[in-house]
Design brief:
The protein is about 0% helix and about 65% strand. The protein is an all-beta fold. It has 2 domains: about 90 residues; about 120 residues, AttH-like fold (Beta Barrel), CATH 2.40.370. The strands form 2 sheets. Strands 1, 2, 3, 4, 5, 6, 7, 8, 9 and 10 form a 10-stranded antiparallel β-sheet that branches. A 9-stranded antiparallel β-sheet has the order 14-13-12-11-19-18-17-16-15, with no helix packed on it. Strand 6 and strand 7 form a beta hairpin. The radius of gyration is 17 Å and the shape is globular. It starts with 5 loop residues before the first strand and ends in a 7-residue tail after the last strand.
Length: about 240
């Protein structure tokens, strides 16, 4: 087990399978159905990447394909993922996230973390923080990267809108990404393939959703995690 705060995620459209693994446990989405596989979780360094094992359920290797990209208290890398989940053999994309500065929840109402992966050279990664008492999107703190043709570009301005279901979980989302020296924004839209809510001992609630994203006429997959402190923030 590594002492670093590492979170791994994988997205396999062919098997309709997505999931996350970290020291506290694992979460799978199988054809949109969420489950937490039993068994001891082991996440440890392996070469330049990481290896994740959940006894009886999962054994995956994560090999970085991009440099670490800073996202407001964390570093994220796009990875190639290989191994197995239950009876499925995976060869897909994923992410490796290392938390470098834990959120100070006395200062935040909500934290949104998003990923969208299309291929080894195309990805969208974003983090949006809502300070305590913020009245709208204009007061949120957003950081985003767009990886295009393998080159990461820091987004100058990110606008995120979210539609929620009756339970307050994210159902769909839209992004406008304003890049340097471009007059019009890049746009991405997404919908939830499946989702669930996790209540943490700290009193936080994490709504985790596997997402299908569409950008430039192409479909990709990723995660949309919404962590809430006290009352949910408005869309």
């Amino acid at each position: 087990m590594t002492g670093r705060a590492i979170a791994l995620a994988f997205f396999d459209p062919r098997h309709e399978l997505q999931g996350t693994v970290r020291a506290g446990g694992a979460l799978l989405f199988e054809q949109g159905r969420a489950s937490s596989p039993p068994g001891e979780v082991d996440v440890h360094p392996a070469g330049e990447g990481y290896r994740a094992i959940v006894d009886g359920s999962l054994e995956l290797s994560f090999s970085p394909l991009s440099p670490p990209l800073e996202l407001g208290g964390s570093r994220t890398q796009v990875c190639g993922v290989a191994g197995r989940v239950k009876d499925a053999t995976l060869d897909c994309l994923g992410t490796l996230v290392e938390t470098t500065a834990a959120p100070v929840w006395a200062e935040l109402d909500a934290l949104r973390s998003l990923s969208g992966l299309w291929d080894a050279d195309t990805a969208l990664l974003a983090s949006v923080r809502r300070p305590r008492g913020a009245r709208g999107h204009g007061e949120e703190l957003a950081t985003a990267w767009l990886v295009h043709d393998g080159v990461p570009v820091l987004v100058e301005e990110t606008r995120l809108s979210t539609v929620y279901d009756a339970s307050g979980r994210q159902r769909s989302a839209g992004l406008e990404l304003w890049l340097p020296e471009e007059d019009l924004p890049r746009r991405a839209s997404g919908r939830a393939l499946g989702g669930t809510s996790l209540e943490l001992e700290s009193g936080l609630v994490v709504n985790v959703a596997a997402f299908e994203w569409r950008m430039d006429g192409r479909e990709g997959q990723g995660l949309y995690e919404l962590t809430l402190h006290d009352e949910p923030a408005a869309a």
